Amino acid sequence: MMEPLNSPPLTRQQMQERLRADPSVSVLIIGAGINGAGLFRDLALQGVDTLIVDKQDFCAGASAAPSRLIHGGLKYLETGEFRLVAQSTRERNLLLRNAPHVVHPLRTAMPTHSWWGGIWPSIQRFFRRPAKMDDRGILISEVGLTLYDFFGRHFRSMPRHSVMLGRRVRESLPDLRRDVRALHTYYDAAISQAERLGFELIDDGCRTHRGAMALNHVNLIGGDGKGVNFEDEEGNAFTVRPQIIVNAGGAWIDEINRQLGRETQHIGGTKGGHLIVDVPKIREQLDGRMIYFGAPDGRICLVYPFMNHVLIGATDIRCIDPDQAVCDDAERDYMLEAVRYLFPDVTIGPDQVRYRYSGVRPLPRSDAADPGQVSRDHAIVEDRIHDWSVLSLVGGKWTTFRGFAEEVADDVLSRLGRRREIDTRQLAIGGGRDYPRDASSRETWLSRVTALCEGDRHRAITLLDRYGTRGEEVGRHCARMSAEGVCRQRSLVSLTDYRVGEIDFVCRFERVEHLADVLFRRLPIALSGQLDSVVIDEVASLCGASLGWAEARRREEIDAVCEIATRLHGVSLMPEHDHSPTRASEAAS
Questions:
Q1: What is the per-residue pLDDT for 292?
Q2: Cβ contacts of residue 35 below 8 Å, gap of 6+?
Q3: Measured distance CA(489)–CA(505) in Å, rounded
Q4: Residues in domain FAD dependent oxidoreductase (predicted)?
Q5: Which letter, b or e, does each residue of 101-138 get, where b requires 16 or more Cβ atoms within 10 Å of its Cβ?
Q6: Residues linked to residue 358 through DSSP beta bridges, in sequence order
Q7: Phi-psi region of 165 (alpha: psi -120 to 50; beta: other; left: phi over 0)
């Protein structure tokens, strides 16, 4: 099995210089969401010279806005998509093994209100006919979960489903609505830091093969048959001459094809809104579980504990312009009302929403009246544009990205006349490599890293939780800089669970171009509801010191983050706990 290079990957400047000297690459991937990132890593492992580019940061579009579930797709059984369920459950089980630092088992409870409800709507949905499914009864749920267990048998690492009835339901969830007669419990998985895993796929690819290059914040200018033209944010232009182009632009696939020279109509995306809400009473009752339930209008909703808050999702609304996708107030109110329906005695309102987000799913164009009925399967669509084969990656989801990448990579390898060298099914990703899986190996790792953290065991645990085994590199970086007389072990004033050297590490070694890259994607600062004006100011100062920003640039970065936080995520930037000038001045110093 090919091991990552010990030497660091090429810098941004080195990659651009190399492309100007020789613009030829075997494969150009446009779009660095999860589909593109997964394919990039797979091709790099096979030794294919590949360039991946994105107009934003890595995993900044819909890939940063999922329900954060790694799941087999229980609802796909209703539409008879058995192959997709089988693939999804298998890939879920593989991700639990390959990315244990960010993918964790999620116990899931599904409330039912009757014994016989949902049988006729299930039959209609199986034959792709519209049907409102507001009650999945005990019988139909039992049948579905038995099938779900069967499809998830490969690489199984979690228990099979179970059911509780009557009084036990009340004891388990005291504030649940009174007409719930049973709770079915089964297991799926959740991904705590989707954006981080996306970056790690990119980073693994760059570290594995010198011919693998990745550039974020690069604009596609167009293609003229001789080459594909790009320009970075400083106005530096360069041309790429690929043999094959893969369009992994997600909701922007048709726009990318238009810029390359052909009008297509492959995508009919829907936006999904989600909320991060501070509601301790529900979080405590959930006790680590997700509740997967039907709202009165028949839509599937979910609520589960997430980073000291509760994550609520999701909407499914047709969206024409992905650049304008936001979780608006109407969506927010719909999701809050769905939770009030489930927990009628718990107070939950807009003032408890700490963060909201929305992304456009790159679904295939469809005339289905109900967006929820559009298949979540994936497909490769080929177009001939100029002299290039352009492969558009339509559909897909976080759970199945590895399998989709494998399918596309095998297609690309065949076109290049090459063979697969590395199987990715059992290959760990990023901080999941050499992850301590038992108490003894975990203790060994923590003891070693605790020594790097000046004897702070809690800090070592935080590094393992946040970065997986790459936390040791972070700890070593902080320790080395402290030994050189630079105080990198100091906690941030505004974020006591982060260290100065940690921010420096991320800025220097994780392809950061903007403050938003750090706050929204490399680290779960915004996602965990911790973003405010003091946090932004302090982290901007640290990023500026690491990346050499002048004061004017630092202010620009702060303004950009404030605009993103308020417009796209509904964040109130006033510090919640301490508004004093002393805290602000300490953080900025």
A1: 94
A2: 248, 250, 362, 378, 393, 396, 401, 404, 405
A3: 12
A4: 27-370
A5: bbbebbbbbbbbbeeebbeebbeebeeeeebebebbbb
A6: 273
A7: beta
Q: For residue 507, give both structure tokens.
A: 């800025």
Q: Give the tens place of pLDDT for each residue, 102-111.
A: 999 999 999 9
Interstrand relation of 182-191 and 212-215 (parallel, antiparallel or unpaired): unpaired
- The residues, ordered by sequence, that sit 6+ positions from 447 with a Cβ below 8 Å of its Cβ are none
Residues 440-469: tens digit of each pLDDT: 999 999 999 999 999 999 999 999 999 999
The size of the chain, in residues, is 589
Q: How far is the C-alpha of 507 from the C-alpha of 413, rounded, in Å?
A: 34
Per DSSP, the three-state class of 180 is coil
Beta bridge partners of 381: 392
Strand partners of residue 353: 277
**Is the Cα dihedral 50, 55, 56, 59 positive or negative?**
negative
DSSP H/E element including 163: strand 162-165
Nearest to 186 by CA among 291, 319, 59, 304: 291
- CA distance linking residue 518 with residue 524, whole number of Å: 8
Q: Which residue stretches of 248-368 are H helix?
A: 253-260, 280-286, 329-342
Q: Token digits for 427?
A: 């290959």
Q: Give pLDDT tens digits for 486-516.
A: 677 899 999 999 999 999 999 999 999 999 9
Helix ranges (H only) for 105-223 are 119-126, 138-151, 167-172, 194-208
Question: Per the structure block, which two tokens stand in for 23?
Answer: 């613009």
- Which phi and psi angles does 474 have, rounded to 5°? -65, -45
What amino acid is encoded at 112 in this protein? T
So what's the pLDDT on residue 150?
87
Q: Which long-range contacts (CB under 8 A, 24 or more apart) does 292-298 make?
A: 292/74, 292/108, 292/109, 292/110, 293/110, 293/111, 293/338, 293/342, 294/133, 294/134, 294/135, 294/136, 295/134, 295/338, 295/341, 296/134, 296/341, 297/132, 297/134, 298/132, 298/133, 298/134
- Region 117-126 average pLDDT: 61
What lies within 8 Å, CB to CB, of 312 at 6+ separation is: 274, 275, 277, 301, 302, 303, 335, 336, 338, 339
Could you tell me where the DSSP H helices lie in 61-157?
82-98, 119-126, 138-151
Q: By three-state DSSP, how is residue 481 classified? A: helix
- Give dist(CA 120, CA 148) in Å, integer: 20
Measured from the Cβ of residue 24, the count of other Cβ atoms closer than 10 Å reads 11
- Residue 120 confidence (pLDDT): 55
Amino acid at 468: G
Beta strand 270-277 with 353-361 is antiparallel
Tell me if the bond preceding 194 is cis, omega within 30° of 0.
no
pTM summary value = 0.92
Tokens of 102: 């960010």
> What are the distances in angstroms from CA 105 to CA 7, 100, 192, 290, 443?
34, 9, 11, 11, 21
